[in-house]
Amino acid sequence: MTSFPQAARVALRDGQLRDNLRVATTTIRSKRATVVGERSDWQELRDAGEAIKRRALRQLEDYLVQFESAVQNAGGVVHWARHAEEANRIIVGLVLASSASEIVKVKSLTTDEIGLNDALAGAGITAIETDLAELICQLGGERPSHILVPAIHKNRFEIRDLFREKLRIPYLSEEPVALASAARAYLRERFLEASVGISGANFAVAETGTVCVVESEGNGRFCTTLPRTLVTVVGIEKLVPTLEDLEVFLQLLPRSSTGERMNPYTSLWTGVTPGDGPREFHVVLLDNGRTDVLADEIGRQTLACIRCSACLNVCPVYSRTGGFAYGSVYPGPIGAILTPQLRGLGEAGSLPFASSLCGACAEVCPVKIDIPKVLVHLRGRVVQESRAKAAPERLVMRALGSVFGGPTRLRFAQALRKTFAVFGRSRWLPGLGGWTRSRDLPPMPEYTFREWWRSNR
Fold first, then answer.
1. Residue 423 sits in which domain range?
2. Domain count across the chain
3. Is residue 378 in some structural domain?
4. What is the pLDDT of residues 69-124, one digit of tens each?
5. What angle do CA 370, 374, 376 make, to 5 degrees?
6. Long-range contacts of 8-17 (CB under 8 A, 24+ apart)
7. Cβ neighbours of 211 (radius 10 Å)
8. At what angle do helices 132-140 and 176-193 cross, to 10 degrees?
9. CATH number (domain holding residue 81)
10. 339-378: pLDDT as tens digits
11. Within a domain: residue 114?
């Protein structure tokens, strides 16, 4: 991964990107505030969501076994995948067994995480993204830049030009209705021809083996009902204990994500029903680092995330850099704590520092993840795991600690302030280059407080 500071420098030079992000996130925040304000019990709902997720993670092993049994009893097949390579191998094998050369996909961050499209392409299988924003990213050869609105970095004029080129519609208008109609016509043929559908899951119910996908366009309903074979990839953290628990999240998620009272399409399916929907149903339960996250007492709360993206829409860092700077399918504050834990601090160690620690993310999180606390925790781990690199900074800090640790040493250092005054006009300080590279040190004062006190009192 490119480090966040390097990637952010590129993004900050893109004025159009910031304009697009500002318009979109401001609109979503306004809608969210309105529908959340309608609920006098909003904090109680958040408490309930937090408690359910905490219970599910605490007893996850038991719920996974219960879910597997329920899916099998309903006619489905459960596959366990320890990592991305194993998950891709299983899914590619299932698609090849169906003799399909093209599949349709519901928007899924989990399949993006494991690089499923590339794995399918390597086996000669074409994956068609059916979510409008995901389709835009796919046609543009780009990675999604937002959890909820993958093409948030593009405006309608850019989308029009992309559709004109890729869908070969030379006279297409930039009006939203025209763009949606063009995508609908293109996708409808794919839905009717596909024999395999692949989805992720917003939630999976341990009690019944039910899988739930919420979306706004109806493409998910097509993908999960029309194909002969349905493969659903579920991160193990997506489990909730009972159908009754699902009620809480179906109130929290739409308000926090799209600013709606309920999702336009909420699809739930359990196993296989003869004569209705897919004839084969496969669930791939994915670990891919999640067990390691569970082992971290502070970091495990990250797995409670329901992917609403509310934290992205209020984050001052994300609003200026966009999602690409995070180098992951999980951008923004939640990505800054999830990606380093899934992919390792050695690869994504810069992300926990991609935050001002303002706390806005924690205030809007519907399941009350303390993102700032996890950020600070991960920063500490980064420092612990890279002590050799931090040696110069550590030595400087120890020296400063010694200076500030006694009045005599402090007075001596203050007497030398004119010697150090040159650093006040510098963007670099020996041993602290990383800190001072983007900060101006304050100018050295003409006299100290003690000197002022002796002169005036």
1. 395-456
2. 2
3. no
4. 999 999 999 999 999 999 999 999 999 999 999 999 998 999 999 999 999 999 99
5. 120
6. 8/321, 8/325, 8/354, 10/325, 11/320, 11/321, 11/322, 11/324, 11/325, 12/320, 12/321, 14/322, 16/155, 17/153, 17/322
7. 27
8. 90
9. 3.40.50.10420
10. 999 999 999 999 999 999 999 999 999 999 999 999 999 9
11. yes
